[in-house]
Specification:
16 helices; 2 domains; binds ligand GMT; Rossmann fold; six-stranded parallel β-sheet; about 45% helix; alpha/beta; about 375 residues; single chain; seven-stranded parallel β-sheet
């Protein structure tokens, strides 16, 4: 099949999922055409059957805002016509779903049918999408999608409660390729960050408000008071300056290692004892799944789809948003008890196996087949 994928290329779960999906489809022999304003960051090597089409918008003094949507729609039309796309898969509803609809209509006028699938990732519904200024466009373009998928049951529920959607929503969860996580890493690395054999907690995010990184620091402060522990922060974003200020106030900077952005955090996860994700809202929590795939138990909130990934009392613990005391107590429970920690590590890996690409990829392929056949009928 010739598949077009539209996604955000920047650091963020939706771009990671779209890129890994495209790479896996390409390995199975599909031809995959990515369209984005930059090279998606995990598409940084040669992959057979993968093609990248950059969307560029020419600057013009009249534009206060660049007409990216128009440029993207034109690119989709061009790629669909000349690469003979069978299906278009857009990740993140805003603005990709409405652009896909526009491209579909343009192609229709040329007697070409291009079904499009919209995958909802979370903030496109729960944060940005809630903005009333987007509502009619999102609702319309979702109702006209040939299929909609959401990355968790919770996000599906949330979408149906926020928008009047008549269209069906299929839940296809996020995934990891367990093969990438089963590699052996040099555990000596641990001494670089924890020279006195301290425990290691890791947090990975884009440091947006919704991630509540300040809670990571507050939990860490409580844990560190009881057990020698280091905190490794991976990622960057608008909250980073505030976090640096807070660590000075809490006097914990000496035990915090801020690594900034890393393309692939697997190696850092390989030395972690615990992963912490205290988000305000999280449709899925791909970073938690990545940690679990590396046998790292997760301390998280119970918001959104997180409880579908991190099973409370089995793969880690889930708490109410902002419950610093409970998250710290749960961290200590695991870090103090090697036997329990090992049990949770194994449980985490077992749970991650349920989200392996070998299970999830066929669900997408089946959906592509379905929308293509429906269009042809
Ligand atoms: O977490 C973010 O801020 C990035 C955002 C995105 O759009 O890339 O992530 C969302 O999509 C991920 C992939 O499906 C999910 O794993 C994240 O839970 C979701 N983020 C939120 O819901 C806050």
């Amino acid at each position: 099949m010739n598949i077009g994928i539209v996604c955000y290329p920047t650091f963020g779960g939706s771009g990671v999922v779209a890129t890994e999906l495209g790479k896996a489809l390409a390995q199975k022999g599909h031809k995959v055409h990515f369209m984005a304003y930059n090279l998606p960051f995990r598409l940084n090597a040669f992959n057979e059957n993968v093609f990248y089409h950059e969307v560029s918008v020419n600057d013009y003094p009249l534009f206060e805002y660049q007409p990216y949507e128009s440029a993207l729609a034109s690119k989709i039309v061009d790629v669909a016509m000349y690469e003979k796309l069978d299906v278009l898969h857009v990740h993140y509803a805003i603005p990709h779903a409405s652009v896909a609809y526009l491209a579909q209509q343009i192609l229709k006028s040329k007697k070409i049918f291009l079904p499009y699938i919209t995958t909802l990732h979370g903030t496109d519904i729960t944060l940005v999408g809630r903005d009333p200024s987007f509502e009619p466009v999102i609702r319309f373009s979702l109702n006209n999608s040939n299929a909609i998928t959401s990355v968790s049951e919770d996000l599906k529920k949330e979408t149906l409660s926020v928008f009047k959607i008549d269209n069906k929503i299929d839940v296809i969860p996020n995934f990891i390729n367990l093969r990438d996580y089963n590699k052996k890493f040099n555990s000596c690395q641990k001494h670089i960050y924890a020279p006195n054999n301290e425990k290691i907690m890791v947090h990975v995010s884009n440091f947006r408000k919704v991630k509540r990184v300040e809670d990571v620091l507050k939990v860490f402060e409580k844990v560190r008071k009881q057990i020698p522990t280091k905190l490794i922060l991976v990622g960057d974003g608008p909250e980073r300056p505030a976090i640096e200020k807070l660590c000075r106030e809490l006097n914990t900077c000496n035990d915090i290692i801020s690594l900034g952005r890393i393309n692939d955090p697997i190696e850092i996860l390989s030395i972690a004892d615990l992963f912490i994700l205290p988000s305000e809202t999280e449709s899925f929590g791909l970073s938690a799944l990545e940690a679990m795939a590396m046998k790292v138990p997760v301390i998280s909130t119970n918001t959104g789809g997180l409880s579908e990934v991190n099973i409370n009392g089995v793969t880690g613990f889930t708490s109410k948003v902002g419950d610093i005391d409970e998250m710290a107590a749960n961290s200590l429970k695991l870090l103090r008890d090697e036997k329990l920690l090992t049990q949770f590590k194994n449980n985490a890996h077992k749970q991650a196996e349920k989200f392996d690409i070998s299970i999830v990829l066929p669900l997408y392929e089946k959906l592509y087949d379905k929308v293509v056949k429906k269009e042809m009928a």
